[in-house]
Amino acid sequence: MRDDERLSMFDQFALVGKALGSGKRLELLDLIAQRERTVGSLSELTGMGLSTTSAHLQVLKRARLVTTRREETSIYYALAGDDVASLYVLLQTVARSRIADAEQARLKYLGVVDDSDVEKVDRHELLARVKSGSVVVLDVRPWDEYAAGHIPGALSIPLAELEKRLSELPSDVDVVAYCRGEHCVLAQEAVRLLRANGWRANRLDHGMIEWRVSGEPVQTAS
């Protein structure tokens, strides 16, 4: 193989690395992993301007990490495949294991000194407890994300509505909350709210994106 051919090959691989080399683009992938979204909705969720959001999305599209579809005047962005979701999850895992500041940044994002006060349940334990009927699975993401795909049998109560809808939760079984991913703050806050109001509550040790990547079943709602 000639030197220029070898370099060309690695340059193609680098397109993906370059596309992932932005915290803003990773945030966009995190949101798109939950459901397909328009530029406008992504702009609103991230606080970026429309033109900036669009520019970042084009970088992701050129690297074939996202796909688009048009519906009337709107263009929707979706992950290009499960391999993209797996890559995103692995990137986070490697960063936390290799970069000391990554863990501190995560805790700061969650608004805690540490999160050891919130017990985590892994998916194998969760599935066993669901089968035995000893737990309620609570999805605290916004409704549109729940509708696009959730853990089968999970109850949807968005975090913003949880305090007013506590009466919908049985008080005689444990509650396991989950949200977008392992580093999503919604489940963390939900568990603290539930415990403060007398519920036995824990959080899933990951979220919807890791659930999908693990090949577990996913249910949708109309």
Automatic annotation (TrEMBL):
GO molecular function annotation: DNA-binding transcription factor activity; thiosulfate-cyanide sulfurtransferase activity
Rhodanese domain sequence ranges: 131-220
SUPFAM superfamilies per record: Rhodanese/Cell cycle control phosphatase, Winged helix' DNA-binding domain
InterPro entries: ArsR-like_HTH, GlpE_sulfurtransferase, HTH_ArsR_DNA-bd_dom, Rhodanese-like_dom, Rhodanese-like_dom_sf, Thiosulphate_STrfase_CS, WH-like_DNA-bd_sf, WH_DNA-bd_sf
Annotated SMART domains: HTH_ARSR (SM00418), RHOD (SM00450)
Boundaries of every HTH arsR-type domain copy: 7-99
Record's protein name: Transcriptional regulator
Organism name: Actinokineospora fastidiosa
